[in-house]
Amino acid sequence: MASRASSEVPASSAPVKLPELPGLGTSWWERGTRYRLRRIRIAVLMAAVMAFLCFVALSLYEGFRTVLPPGVRGVWDWAQVIASCGALVWGWAVQRRRQREDLLDPPSPMESRSRKRAEKGRAARLAFAGRALLVLAAPVMPAFAAFCVGWSAAMVTVHEFPSEVGARRMWEARRG
What is the Cα–Cα distance from 165 to 97, expressed in whole angstroms? Predict the structure, then answer.
């Protein structure tokens, strides 16, 4: 019969379940083929959404452009090109700054999940409220679309998501 002391398992040696991250599952830990396929899937999905957004933005802009006098159209088009280039860079910079801040204090897997839920609810409300504003925003829709493209491109081209860093730190703290 084993003594009571030898049959007790310390709490720290109990197996800790690898946390699942939204959109990445547990593939973030090993970074193998599954991880790369999920990251590619995220990038392709974002590219499709951004292509649709750009199509809608240019369609709305074209509708607005037809009511402008012919002499003003060229000037307005060039103003849109310049504004769109600036908005593309601005969107990239805003997203990278947010990622840098998140990397300084990366969220835990639970915080990542709650942030995703909050963003989904916020996005639905903004989409509903934004339908009426689309008509008013038609003159600047190309610049808005360029901002979104820059923001999205910066999001999907990072080496490591802040949620991965937070999950890795949490995992290593529990293991060590």
Answer: 16
Alpha helices in 66-176 (DSSP H): 70-104, 109-137, 141-156, 162-175
Which residues, 6 or more positions from 158, have their beta carbon under 8 angstroms from its beta carbon? Answer: 99
Q: Which amino acid is at 1?
A: M
18-51: pLDDT as tens digits: 777 776 777 777 778 888 888 888 899 999 999 9
Cα–Cα distance for residue pair 61/41, rounded to 1 Å: 30
Please report where in the chains the tokens 């999940």 appear, as a residue: 113
Q: How many CB atoms lie within 10 A of CB 71?
A: 8
Q: Beta-carbon neighbour count of residue 151 at 10 Å? A: 21
Task: Report yes or no: 50 and 155 within 8 Å, Cβ to Cβ.
Answer: no
Model-level pTM?
A: 0.72
Give the whole-angstrom CA distance, residue 90 versus residue 12. 47
Neighbouring residues of 58: CB distance < 8 A, sequence distance ≥ 6: 141, 142, 145
Measured at the CA of 57, the angle between CA 46 and CA 148, to 5 degrees, comes to 40
Q: In the numeric block, which tokens belong to residue 139?
A: 């003159």
| Residue 107 to residues 85, 114, 138, Cα–Cα distance (Å) | 32, 10, 37
Chain-centroid distance, C-alpha 6: 50
